[in-house]
Design a protein that fits this description.
InterPro entries: DUF112_TM (IPR002823). The chain is mainly alpha-helical and about 500 residues long. The chain is built from 21 helices and 2 strands. It has a two-stranded antiparallel ribbon.
């Protein structure tokens, strides 16, 4: 009953006229930027992060939720119409959706993706509203050593699961942790790694790092490639709406995708890639038309797209209740919280319930707005996809630069933006994942604070870090997650050598 009351109060916040405007602007901008080729939700949120720093915190975070969901929706449009996934979780959508588009069924493919996103997003948000309070109760039992162990688990899982090489992920993480040391130490008051530059005393701005790595780095990477495989935008032929047979073949994959996506997305190493691939495999096995897979099966769009959006809602549960990002987009959203000096976690539900429950309720509103807004505007998105690549990335550079200057007018900030952009380009060039670096910068100072508190309680003894059953369990899981990829890789090499 308490959850119903809290959610009802959240709707009172989310349905305020100004917050409805924020939600509408968020879903529109999220779809607008997310539908562009090569620009996924993480880059969408990072690109729009600097322009929200002067807005009302609740309205701004509601807009971020809309941007997040809009970016996820836009990625499916790109995948279906030009066979260019905005992120790895949309690869399956591109596989079947683009085949449907080439067969003249782009309309039903876009419709099942949109409706599947709506169904999955709504059900997953209901799960978020009812399960999050229980996770908060568990989190309130955590001591400093438990929080430190939880952050270590987040570091390891994010580093090990992003990219093809766990070692490269860990390297990116340590770069982010090092950047997190820059500035004034909160406990001792000493300046660290500032090199006499006053602008660094407050530390590295997460916004500058995120925009540099994602936006500037992506633009430089695209420009560095001399030959582009230009994908033809598939025209939308016939009706946009699904037939009765399409509905019959889609509704069960929507539900199965939701059941897969939400719990896996909420795990520290979950993400959206695993449930989308699982959904595709399950739908192929359960389908009455397995021969259509690989040639444009509608189940191959409906299930994975539902799993993708349910996982997006799932990532918000550890973010809101524990303050832990489990995806690149969640890491950028955490930066959005922190620019208002708001730290997500169990105490936030007690200290600012209107903000938390207003944000959760706004997810229902954003889902409804997306389905009403985007299907009639498909023609606009198709025209947008024809934007020449040089114009597109020149616009991104201008937008990123002006946004960063608006947030922090300093030439030092611009120099750092350029430096981070070059680092982002180099990381892309050599297949280093970017998300662990952002997570390291955001969570590094928090992990350091919890570690020092735990050591102070036990008078400097490191044994205090493993005396708590929760901390010991989490550190064991972190060690397992760290060692497992190397063991699996070694076993695969051993088997290949035997063959």
């Amino acid at each position: 009953m308490d959850t119903f009351i809290a959610l009802g109060n959240g709707f009172l916040v989310a349905l305020m006229p100004m917050n409805l405007v924020y939600a509408l602007v968020g879903v529109f901008l999220g779809t607008l930027v997310g539908v562009l080729p090569g620009i996924g939700p993480a880059l969408t949120v990072a690109l729009l992060l600097p322009i929200t720093f002067r807005l009302d915190p609740t309205g701004s975070l509601i807009m971020f939720a809309g941007v997040y969901y809009g970016g996820m929706y836009g990625g499916s449009t790109t995948s279906i119409l030009i066979n260019t996934p905005g992120e790895s979780a949309s690869m399956i959508t591109a596989l079947e959706g683009n085949r449907m588009a080439k067969a003249g069924r782009a309309g039903p493919a876009l419709s099942t993706a949109a409706l599947g996103s709506f169904v999955a997003g709504t059900i997953a948000t209901i799960c978020l509203a009812f399960f999050a309070p229980y996770l908060v109760k568990v989190a309130l039992l955590f001591g400093p050593e438990d929080y430190f162990a939880l952050m270590v688990l987040a570091f390891v899982t994010v580093s090990a699961t992003f990219g093809d090489s766990p070692l490269r992920g860990i390297t990116a993480l340590f770069v982010g942790l090092t950047l997190g040391l820059i500035g004034i130490d909160t406990l001792s008051g000493q300046a660290r790694l500032v090199f006499g530059i006053p602008e660094l005393l407050d530390g590295i701005e997460v916004t500058t790092l995120a925009v540099g790595l994602f936006a500037i780095g992506e633009a430089l990477f695209v420009c560095s490639r001399r030959a582009f495989g230009v994908e033809e935008v598939q025209p939308i032929k016939g009706s946009l709406w699904m037939t009765r047979e399409d509905w019959k073949r889609s509704w069960k994959p929507w539900l199965r995708g939701t059941l897969l996506g939400f719990p896996i997305g909420a795990l520290p190493a979950g993400g959206a890639e695993i449930p989308t691939f699982l959904s595709y495999t399950i739908e192929k096995k359960l389908s009455k038309y397995p021969e259509e897979f690989g040639h444009g099966a509608i189940e191959g769009v409906a299930g994975p797209e539902a799993a993708n959006n349910a996982a997006a809602a799932g990532t918000l549960m550890p973010l809101l209740t524990l303050g832990l990002p489990t995806s690149a987009t969640a890491a950028i959203m955490l930066a959005g919280f922190q620019q208002y000096n708001i730290q997500p976690g169990p105490l936030l539900f007690a200290t600012d319930p209107a903000l938390v429950w207003g944000l959760i309720a706004s997810l229902f509103v954003a889902n409804f707005m997306l389905i009403v807004l985007n299907l009639p505007l498909v023609g606009l998105w198709v025209k947008l996809l024809r934007t020449p690549t040089p114009w597109l990335y020149a616009g991104i550079l201008v937008f990123a630069t002006t946004g960063t200057l608006a947030a922090n007018p300093s030439y030092i900030e611009l120099i750092m933006l350029l430096c981070f952009g070059i680092v982002g380009f180099v990381m892309r060039r050599f297949d280093y994942p970017i998300a662990p670096m952002v997570v390291g910068l955001i969570l590094g100072p928090m992990a350091e604070t919890q570690l020092r508190r735990a050591l102070q309680v036990d008078v400097g003894s490191p044994m205090g870090l493993i005396q708590s059953p929760i901390a010991a369990t989490l550190l064991s899981l972190a060690a397992l997650a760290l060692i497992a990829p190397f063991v699996i890789k070694g076993l695969s090499r051993f088997r290949a050598a035997e063959d």
